[in-house]
Design a protein that fits this description.
Helix 14 packs across helix 15. This protein has 2 domains: about 100 residues, Glutamine synthetase, N-terminal domain (Ubiquitin-like (UB roll), Roll), CATH 3.10.20.70; about 325 residues, 2-Layer Sandwich (Creatine Kinase, Chain A, domain 2), CATH 3.30.590. Strands 7, 8, 9, 10, 11, 12, 13 and 14 form an 8-stranded mixed beta sheet that branches. It is of the alpha+beta class.
C-alpha cells in the first residue's frame, strides 16, 4: 500500500518533468454523468479556444457511463453523421493547472448554428437561472461534497481500501468523524488539495474527517451564481483526483464505495435574493417564500430522484440510520430529512437538499433543484408538515425509491422534469439510464455466486 510522508508533500505541487512539458489548455465539456471530456490544445492556440473554434461531436454529451454512444438507442451519432458542435469557452472558468503546465477551461457545447446543445448540462443550468431572473431573483448556491481517499493499488484491482496511514496493523481504525488525528495522518494530501484549490481560486472552506475510513467532506463557499457553484464542484472533483495521485493514492466520489461504511453525498444549500439583495427566504418578511420553495422541492423530489441518484450504486446509499434520507421529508435543522432548513430567519435563511450523492452531475442536480424551487415559488405550493411537527407524526411520508429502474421510469413520465430539462433531454436521459440499468441488472455478479452457487 502507498505511504504518505512529509517528504512526498514537499514535492507535491511541483510540475512533473516541467522542462519536458508543453503548455496546454484542457478544453472541458461535461457529459451526462458529470465526466469532463474534451481536448488538450496547445497554449499558443488559446485565442482559438476562447473564440469557440474547438469542436467536439455533439454526441459526446449523450455517452453512457461506459463511454458508448449507443447510436441505435439515441440516433445522435453515426446514423446522422456524428456532427460536430462548437465548444464555447466560459472565460470566467479559465484557471491554471497546479498539477501540470497549462490551464483548463469549461465550455458549453453549441450546434454549429450557434444554439446551445439541448444535451449540455451547463446550458440547462444557465437556462433555469435565467427563469429566476425574469422574476428579479438570483439563486445563491453552496455545495458540500464528500469523498474517499483510497489505496491506489487496491483501487486499480477494483477493490476499496483506506490509505496505509489510516490502517495501523493492516486494518482501519473504524469511524473517524471529526477526528483530528485522521486529519494529521492525511495532512500531506489534504494540504495539496487546499493548495490546488487556492491556485484555482476555488472557494473551498472547511475540510473535515467524515464517518468512513478515509472519507472527507469539503464545504464550498456560497455563490450568487449557480453555474459558478457547479463549476467549483466539478473542478474540485478533478483536483482531488490529481492531488491524490501526487501522493500515490486514489480518490472516489462513488456514492457507496464500502458496503459497511457511510456513503458520500452532495448537499446543496440554496437561498434566493431579490433585486435589492434581500434574501426572500427570510421568514421575518412574512412573504412565505421559503415555505413555497420547500413545497416545490418536495413536490418534485421523487420525479427527480434519477438525477440525484443517477447510478445503480447510488441506491445503496439510502440506508436507515445513515444520515442519508430514506423518506420524502423536510425538517428544521434535522439532518435525517431529505430537505433540511438550517436557518429560517435573516440573511442566512436557506434550505439544504440532502438527497444527491457525490456521484451525481452537479449541473443536473442544481438544475433539478432550482427548477423545483422555482415551480414552488410560482405556484405557491404549500409544503407538507415538517418532520418534527405533530401533524407529520400522524401521517406516513412517501419513501425515496430503492429501485433504480423505478426511479428512471418515474423521471421518464414526469411533466415537471420535461419542463425543467426539456422533453427531448428528459427522454434521452431516461433512455440512456434505462439502458445502463438493464445492462447491469442482467450481469451475474460475484455476490450472486457467493450467495447462491453452493446453496441452490
Amino acid at each position: 500500500m502507498a505511504q504518505i510522508s512529509q517528504a512526498s508533500f514537499a514535492h507535491s505541487t511541483d510540475r512533473p518533468h516541467e522542462e519536458e512539458a508543453t503548455d496546454r489548455v484542457d478544453v472541458l465539456c461535461i457529459d451526462m454523468n458529470g465526466i469532463p471530456r474534451g481536448k488538450w490544445v496547445p497554449a499558443e492556440q488559446l485565442d482559438k479556444v476562447m473564440g469557440g473554434q474547438v469542436r467536439l461531436p455533439l454526441s459526446t454529451q449523450s455517452l453512457d457511463i461506459w463511454g458508448e454512444d449507443n447510436d441505435a438507442l439515441t440516433g445522435l451519432s453515426q446514423s446522422i453523421g456524428d456532427p460536430d458542435g462548437a465548444c464555447h469557452a466560459d472565460e470566467r472558468t479559465l484557471t491554471p493547472l497546479p498539477w501540470a503546465k497549462g490551464h483548463q477551461v469549461l465550455t458549453t457545447l453549441h450546434d454549429l448554428n450557434g444554439t446551445p446543445s439541448f444535451m449540455d448540462p451547463r446550458a440547462m443550468l444557465a437556462a433555469v437561472v435565467e427563469r429566476f431572473r425574469h422574476h428579479g431573483w438570483t439563486p445563491v448556491v453552496a455545495i458540500e461534497l464528500e469523498f474517499y481517499l483510497l489505496d491506489a493499488e487496491a483501487r486499480h484491482a477494483l477493490k476499496t481500501m483506506p490509505p496505509a496511514p489510516l490502517c495501523p496493523g493492516g486494518d482501519h481504525r473504524g469511524q473517524q468523524l471529526y477526528e483530528l488525528e485522521t486529519m494529521d495522518a492525511m495532512a500531506p494530501v489534504l494540504d495539496t488539495i487546499r493548495a490546488f484549490a487556492r491556485a484555482q481560486t476555488i472557494p473551498a472552506d472547511t475540510l473535515i474527517a467524515e464517518f468512513g475510513p478515509g472519507q472527507f467532506e469539503v464545504n464550498l463557499w456560497h455563490r450568487p451564481d449557480a453555474l459558478a457553484a457547479a463549476d467549483d464542484a466539478l473542478y474540485f472533483k478533478r483536483l482531488v483526483a490529481q492531488a491524490a495521485r501526487h501522493h500515490g493514492l486514489a480518490s472516489t466520489f462513488m456514492a457507496k464505495p464500502y458496503t459497511d461504511q457511510a456513503g458520500s453525498g452532495m448537499h446543496l444549500h440554496v437561498s434566493v435574493l431579490d433585486e435589492a439583495g434581500n434574501n426572500i427566504f427570510d421568514q421575518d418578511n412574512g412573504a412565505g417564500h421559503l415555505d413555497a420553495a420547500i413545497g416545490g422541492v418536495m413536490h418534485s423530489l421523487l420525479d427527480g430522484q434519477a438525477i440525484f441518484a443517477p447510478h445503480g450504486n447510488s441506491y445503496r446509499r439510502f440506508q436507515p440510520d445513515s444520515f442519508a434520507p430514506i423518506e420524502c421529508t423536510w425538517g428544521r435543522d434535522h439532518r435525517g430529512a431529505a430537505v433540511r432548513v438550517p436557518e429560517w430567519h435573516g440573511a442566512a435563511a436557506r434550505l439544504e437538499h440532502r438527497v444527491a450523492g457525490a456521484d451525481a452531475n452537479p449541473y443536473l442536480v442544481a438544475t433539478a433543484l432550482l427548477g423545483g424551487i422555482l415551480h414552488g415559488l410560482e405556484q405557491r405550493i404549500a409544503p407538507p408538515p415538517a418532520i418534527e411537527d405533530e401533524a407529520h407524526a400522524r401521517q406516513r411520508s412517501e419513501c425515496l425509491s430503492h429501485d433504480w429502474l423505478a426511479a428512471i421510469e418515474r423521471f421518464a413520465a414526469s411533466p415537471a422534469m420535461a419542463d425543467i430539462f426539456g422533453t427531448a433531454y428528459r427522454d434521452l436521459y431516461a433512455r440512456i439510464k434505462r439502458h445502463e440499468a438493464r445492462e447491469l441488472m442482467a450481469r451475474v455478479t460475484d455476490v450472486d455466486r457467493q450467495t447462491y452457487l453452493s446453496r441452490l
